[in-house]
UniProtKB/TrEMBL annotation, chain A:
<feature type="transmembrane region" description="Helical">
    <location>
        <begin position="55"/>
        <end position="74"/>
    </location>
</feature>
<protein>
    <recommendedName>
        <fullName>DUF1468 domain-containing protein</fullName>
    </recommendedName>
</protein>
<feature type="domain" description="DUF1468">
    <location>
        <begin position="22"/>
        <end position="161"/>
    </location>
</feature>
<feature type="transmembrane region" description="Helical">
    <location>
        <begin position="20"/>
        <end position="43"/>
    </location>
</feature>
<keyword id="KW-1133">Transmembrane helix</keyword>
<dbReference type="InterPro" id="IPR009936">
    <property type="entry name" value="DUF1468"/>
</dbReference>
<keyword id="KW-0812">Transmembrane</keyword>
From TrEMBL, chain B:
<feature type="transmembrane region" description="Helical">
    <location>
        <begin position="201"/>
        <end position="220"/>
    </location>
</feature>
<keyword id="KW-1133">Transmembrane helix</keyword>
<feature type="transmembrane region" description="Helical">
    <location>
        <begin position="465"/>
        <end position="486"/>
    </location>
</feature>
<feature type="transmembrane region" description="Helical">
    <location>
        <begin position="119"/>
        <end position="141"/>
    </location>
</feature>
<keyword id="KW-0472">Membrane</keyword>
<keyword id="KW-0812">Transmembrane</keyword>
<feature type="transmembrane region" description="Helical">
    <location>
        <begin position="20"/>
        <end position="50"/>
    </location>
</feature>
TrEMBL record, chain C:
<dbReference type="InterPro" id="IPR005064">
    <property type="entry name" value="BUG"/>
</dbReference>
<protein>
    <submittedName>
        <fullName>ABC transporter substrate-binding protein</fullName>
    </submittedName>
</protein>
<keyword id="KW-0732">Signal</keyword>
<dbReference type="InterPro" id="IPR042100">
    <property type="entry name" value="Bug_dom1"/>
</dbReference>
<comment type="similarity">
    <text>Belongs to the UPF0065 (bug) family.</text>
</comment>
<feature type="signal peptide">
    <location>
        <begin position="1"/>
        <end position="28"/>
    </location>
</feature>
<dbReference type="Pfam" id="PF03401">
    <property type="entry name" value="TctC"/>
</dbReference>
Length: 167, 509, 323
């Protein structure tokens, strides 16, 4: 993973955006951990007197997480902030579109089934990533969709979603 | 040695049995395909083929099943290295360094090392099964709940080894993974925790989470890049490691194979745990531990040798004790029973001739795996020649199909997508994904066995310090967790660039 | 692809016909027009899956379009059983139901109850077998139960998970005789058997097939089975009933359809299930897999399910599992 991540010793600098992101992450995860503890306190005790019950371990994990978040918070606050030259333009809009396409596929696949969903998903993603040829895009999308279908459904006997519309 | 004699007899019997030879080749090939496709596991493959073995002779049927088993574990490494899609939990460990190496244009070397290590690990474990089974078989029985708990804690401590540069972020990812792992039915009382009423969440859909965190997140990240650069593809590079490279791996291979066979023999512990433990130990003994996580071939070698060595260990427990240690050996035990061979202490004496023919056949299966693996790598590596604008959408579609296939569930596709989005942001801000996977494997095991141990001891915590294996494993865990801290103190942190530059930048030169 | 496409056309044709003709009987007459899907709520390779696959294989001769097995795993059977319950009641999605469908509802974990299913046929049943190590001091069931009476909570009995059938079998025994055991749940029967072999627990209550390897090797001893009659595979092992404890409890597996499935469809499936179950090939396969053939026709099976549903409810309420 991010091997270039600076060791959080306070030596390296961080950009303003990174600092904000880390603070948001600490806040979010902290909220989750607190939520876990509150929920777990409502769990019933185990009927077995020797057992610690279902709540013990989640509370333990959440407490550990809170402690670690505290360390991360301290590290982030200690680290000096500086303007880092923006590395290069990154296409975040494209990432968001890709995620939305996947979300659409997730919502559609149950009703319309594998074939149309996979075809549209592939065509959309390929267009997004630069394969926009009016001939190759649909041909490739169709070929891959069919190849995977044949491999799973016939070759391996693993049925893909038929779609509730067509059942 | 008497066993050697019997084994030679087995080889001769096998040589006159063309059906068995053909079916084991078929089994290995099918296993590799099944293992390489995300969402399909060796268990599934073995279960699907089982009914066909009913009408076969015992040797042919069982060798086909063994072939699927072996091939399935090895096959997972291929997409893990090439595309960062871990087909199996064990391959998630291989993906760490395998994919990093592939990003440096040396996918071929990564695949070659993985294949050779799988072959050596598997072969050594079958040899251990042949010659040391009576000595080692009883070991599995020493593992009660407290030992399993200690093993899980040791496994969790490995998070320290795979955290990358920020131990705190690695541990945060690990603890978050532990929380995710506690979703579902509580392992002792069956109480539903954090499920929001979804029956699908009663057991954590572990493989979809893994596919999302690794593969889908990687594709999302690749979407950030400009189109021109996106077209330049990684090279395959050379396939076989050089002789000095291979010699340098000897220690890793032997150690990982031994560890793998050992861990495989423990019921409930499988290739995933073996791969991570082997990784950890390879790093501990390495002269260049700082290279781990950045494309170290010893890491790939350790994971694959350890993972595949599990096969021999798991078979040993199943064949000598009649106890299946995991789902695959459970199905294989069914296959043995169907053929009129009752696994258990009497199997090796009552059916010596047949058993040794089988064992010879298993060694043959691993040879087939080596040949098929090395023979097809050049062809499989072609995948990387595809333009990225087609390859990346294909990977996402495979993520969708793989997440669905594991339980035939659309819900799991949603889990995969959520994990992919979370994984993307984790990667963006320098939180490693592997600790989450490790926590998902070890978390439930740690909790269940701790609470079981407590029940077994009638509520006394004595089991934590009165049992030698437990104590040894817990001590090992403490060392693993504290070692990176000590190292950092001594060496001082290396100067780093601002964080969250994607790892790929290093490979692009 | 060809198949689905064709079935889609047939469906469209069927819809067209349904618009003109009275719907009910027309639909049943043509049943089945396409392959029937058999939902298995457990993973491939397990006992339930093996029964399903053996059944689907043998049914080919009796059901023209065949049966496809689909595993829907998760939640100790809850996910798959929920899907069977919620399936369109047209006979194209049927399920392999297990004893869990009469147990899970009482634990407050699922939205279905046993009444939501219509039993078509029972295919297989396995009793609970109380098993100890061969070197255990108890030679007979009587000695074991006496020891349990004298040492309440001391005997550690492994089972395949809290709320699973083998756990309930032990609890039912304890309940019946006023005993107390220390129940230790494992992730399935095999780890429990391993723990027994390693001497970490004193006994297990699982199906006889799950300990047969160790019993044949002389490492374990079955003290008694909670069955109506002695088992074919273990003729020397007494039933609990013989030893004076009136208890028969165990798992069963059979074909189920959602409640509102048309009677004609159910009738067709019942005939198919009966003819399939009576095939020698099906019986042989089960025997090879160490599974007990136990065909029972729908109506009688329904009575059993109903009775056990009530028993489990009472038992689970008493031991604090019901929610």
């Amino acid at each position: 993973m991010s091997d270039q991540t600076a060791p959080q010793d306070g030596a390296a600098v961080q950009s303003r955006a990174d600092r904000l992101a880390h603070l948001v992450i600490v806040a979010l995860m902290g909220a989750v951990a607190v939520g876990v503890i509150v929920t777990a306190l409502g769990f019933p005790a185990s009927p077995d007197p020797n057992d610690v019950g279902p709540a013990r371990f989640p509370i333990l994990y959440a407490t550990g997480l809170l402690g670690l978040l505290g360390i991360l918070l301290a590290q982030t606050l200690r680290q000096p902030v500086a303007e880092v030259a923006a590395p290069e333009r990154r296409h975040y809009g494209r990432v968001a579109l890709g995620m939305l396409l996947m979300l659409g596929a997730l919502l559609a696949i149950g009703t319309v089934g594998y074939f149309p969903t996979a075809f549209v998903l592939l065509a959309g993603l390929m267009a997004l990533m630069g394969q926009r040829s009016l001939v190759w895009n649909p041909v490739l999308a169709l070929a891959i969709t069919a190849a995977i279908y044949i491999l799973f459904d016939y070759g391996l006997n693993v049925p893909l979603p038929p779609g509730s519309l067509f059942e | 040695m008497d066993n050697l004699h019997l084994l030679w007899g087995g080889v001769q019997t096998l040589a006159t049995h063309p059906t068995a030879i053909l079916l084991s080749i078929f089994g290995v090939a099918a296993g590799i395909v099944i293992g390489a496709l995300p969402g399909l596991t060796a268990t599934m493959g073995v279960a699907i083929l089982l009914p066909f073995t009913f009408s076969m002779d015992p040797v042919s049927g069982l060798l086909m099943i063994s072939g699927v088993f072996f091939g399935g574990i090895y096959g997972g490494s291929i997409p893990a290295i090439l595309l960062r899609i871990p087909g199996t939990p064990a391959a998630a460990a291989t993906a760490i360094d395998g994919y990093a190496l592939a990003q440096k244009g040396q996918a071929g070397l990564a695949l070659g090392v993985a294949t050779i290590s799988s072959f050596i690990g598997g072969t050594l474990s079958v040899l251990i099964l042949i010659f040391l089974a009576p000595i080692l078989a009883g070991f599995a029985l020493k593992f009660s709940a407290s030992e399993t708990f200690a093993l899980a804690v040791f496994g969790l401590s490995i998070i320290a080894s795979i955290s990358g540069d920020s131990l705190v972020k690695g541990l945060i990812a690990g603890f978050a993974g532990l929380l995710v792992a506690s979703i579902g039915l509580d392992p002792m009382g069956g109480f539903p925790r954090f499920t929001a009423g979804y029956t699908e969440l009663f057991t954590v859909p572990f493989i979809p989470v893994m596919i999302g965190l690794f593969a889908a997140a990687e594709v999302f990240k690749s979407m950030e890049e400009g189109e021109l650069r996106a077209r330049a593809m990684a090279q395959i590079g050379r396939l076989l490691p050089s002789w000095p490279q291979l010699r340098g791996l000897t220690g890793t291979l032997l150690r990982s194979s031994g560890l793998g066979a050992f861990i495989g023999a423990i019921p409930g512990a499988g290739a995933d745990i073996a791969a991570y433990v082997s990784y950890n130990e390879a790093r501990r003994f390495s002269r260049t531990p700082e290279n781990f996580g950045k494309g170290e071939i010893a890491a790939i070698s350790a994971c694959e040798a350890g993972g595949n060595a599990c096969t021999g260990g798991a078979l040993m427990t199943m064949m000598t004790l009649g106890i299946p240690g995991d789902a695959v050996t459970a199905v294989m035990m069914g296959a043995l029973v169907v053929q009129g061979l009752q696994p258990g202490p009497l199997l090796f004496t009552d059916h010596a001739e047949l058993v040794f023919t089988l064992l010879a056949g298993m060694l043959f299966c691993y040879l087939v795996l080596l040949a098929l693996g090395l023979g097809s790598l050049r062809f499989i590596g072609r995948v990387l020649m595809m333009p990225r604008s087609v390859l990346m959408p294909l990977v996402l579609l495979l993520c969708v199909v793989g997440a669905y296939a594991i339980n035939n569930s659309v819900f799991d596709i949603g889990i995969m997508l959520a994990a992919g989005v979370v994984g993307y942001f984790m990667q963006r801000w320098g939180f490693p994904a592997s600790p989450v996977v490790l926590a998902l494997i070890m978390g439930p095991m740690a909790e269940a066995s701790f609470r079981r141990a407590l029940s077994l001891s009638n509520g006394s915590y004595d089991f934590l310090w009165t049992r030698p294996i437990t104590v040894a494993l817990l001590a090992l865990a403490a060392v693993t967790l504290l070692l990176p801290l000590l190292r950092r103190r001594k060496g001082g942190g290396p100067g780093g660039t601002p964080e969250a530059l994607p790892a790929t930048a290093a490979g692009k030169e | 692809m060809e198949l689905t496409h064709r079935s889609k056309l047939k469906l469209l044709a069927g819809l067209g016909a349904a618009a003109i003709l009275p719907a009910g009987p027309a639909l049943a007459q043509g049943y089945p027009r396409r392959p029937v899907e058999l939902i298995v709520p457990f993973a491939p390779g397990g006992g339930t899956d093996l029964v399903a696959r053996a059944f689907a294989d043998a049914a080919k001769a009796h059901l023209e379009r065949g049966i496809g097995v689909v595993n829907r795993t998760g939640g100790g059977g809850a996910v798959g059983l929920s899907e069977i319950m919620a399936a369109r009641p047209d006979g194209y999605k049927i399920g392999l139901g297990t004893v869990e469908l009469a147990m899970l509802p009482h634990m407050g974990l699922v939205r279905f109850s046993a009444d939501d299913f219509l039993p078509v046929a029972r295919l297989n049943a396995e009793p609970s077998a109380v098993t100890v190590k061969a070197d255990a001091p108890w030679k007979t069931l009587g000695e074991y139960l006496e020891h349990a009476k004298a040492n309440p909570g001391k005997i550690r009995v492994g089972n395949s998970g809290t709320g699973a059938i083998w756990h309930l079998a032990t609890e039912a025994l304890a309940d019946k005789l006023g005993l107390r055991f220390n129940n230790i749940p494992y992730e399935g029967a095999a780890p429990a058997v391993t723990a027994l072999l390693g001497g970490h627990i004193e006994a297990v209550a699982v199906s006889p097939a799950e300990v047969s390897a160790q019993v044949q090797a002389g490492q374990m001893r079955i003290l008694g089975v909670m069955a109506e009659q002695r088992l074919e595979a273990f003729p020397d092992v007494p039933t609990f009933r013989e030893s004076g404890t009136d208890l028969a409890i165990g798992t069963w597996r059979g074909i189920f359809v959602p409640k509102r499935t048309p009677a004609e469809v159910v009738e067709t499936l019942r005939q198919v299930a009966r003819r399939t179950a009576e095939e020698q090939a099906f019986r042989d396969t089960l025997k090879k897999l160490n599974l007990t053939w136990a065909y029972l026709d729908g109506p009688q099976f329904a009575e059993q399910v109903k009775a056990e549903d009530a028993t489990f409810k009472a038992l689970m309420t008493r031991i604090g599992l019901a929610r």
